[in-house]
GST N-terminal domain-containing protein (Agrocybe chaxingu), 502 residues
Amino acid sequence: MTIIFYDIPSTFPNNVWSANTWKTRYCLNYKRIPYKTEWVEYPDIEPLCKRVGIAPTSKKEDGSGRDHYTLPAIYDPSTGAYVSDSFAIAQYLDKTYPDTPRIFPGGTDGLQAAFEPAFRSNLGELWRFAILAECVGLNPVSEEYFRRTRKEIGGKTIEEVVPKGEEAVKVWKGVEEGLGRVDAWYQKNDGKGRYLLGETLSWGDFVVAGYLICSKIIWGEESREWKDIGSWHGGRWKALIESLKKYETVN
Amino acid sequence: MTIIFYDIPSTFPNNVWSANTWKTRYCLNYKRIPYKTEWVEYPDIEPLCKRVGIAPTSKKEDGSGRDHYTLPAIYDPSTGAYVSDSFAIAQYLDKTYPDTPRIFPGGTDGLQAAFEPAFRSNLGELWRFAILAECVGLNPVSEEYFRRTRKEIGGKTIEEVVPKGEEAVKVWKGVEEGLGRVDAWYQKNDGKGRYLLGETLSWGDFVVAGYLICSKIIWGEESREWKDIGSWHGGRWKALIESLKKYETVN
């Protein structure tokens, strides 16, 4: 049976862009589990989740205390399960399809759970650059929603959030330094391979690759931003993304 | 042959207290590697390291740009190696003594490297409470050094750093919430055991236990602080420390 994978569309090639949903796409392709993407515009996410019973993943950041519904989410017709949150989806897939390559090899689930917050806290303020490029690449109905809700949270327009001039130089340097600390973690893998666990792919790599491929897509391969990132830390980030090319399929 | 383990003494039982050196003690005991502790007071750490050739682990935080020498460090007479930095020591021990229990099972070195910064960033400002209890438990020569150098870095006396009144309540709540996020990582281990990798101990657990046992020692088992920590998150932290009791030996 074919899993339904809920993702947010855009005007980028093949619709794909979101770092968070890329993690799930990598997992599904890595495990070779048949799936079909169902595209859901931002304003339709909450109604969809409430209608079919997909659990919220957090509380809204607007201080309202209301539930926040996010993608990725999946529906697995073979079990009837709806699952949201990319980590929970990955654990569900490992459990439900134990004969496919494991996203958490060697029972590393707990250790891997610490990785994404650690990685994100080292990305610095990359999001302040990425947010505009993401936003203008959405379809109009999602762009309007994205702009309005981000303004409600932070009080600033997307354009105001993006660092400019000297601040931009400093913030971008912070991104490079942060990824440098992540590079140091990879270097600790004892020279055994390009992945966090050496030769073996796992959740942490999909997290890193999800954010990086999102950057590559929203700015474009020929952009100054992606060329910068690709040149940092001995080309580690470019090579990581290229090594995962076979898991980029959009079904 | 017997490894020399350099640690910082104190007036606490058996001299031991430091969270950072506890990580190494746990590793040595877990691997059942013969070792003998050599006690080094704070002002003697840098001269010792320079004399025997133990590498600095960072730059001093006083803005001088000078090398910072820290313990733990070890000397292994069977190879002639001096190694500093608790993570590097653990990797050295796994490599040099491959027939002992692995601190990084399943090639998890890279993933484990991300764990300590992730854990520490979730401890909140625990250090602001701990610093006074640690300091007054040192021997006079180290206490004087500790007070002087911490004042040089932050401009405040140790007593001024400790939160008081309403701030103390808020900061302590932050410690509980931070450990709550760490508890959530442990809960992701798929119900397979009390450790990050399920039934198998590894580096991440020694990091957590090192900080926790330090708290237990400096405040004492009957203190309000340790009783609080021990009661949080279903008693996870107390149980973790108790499960490692067999690796507490001080040689």
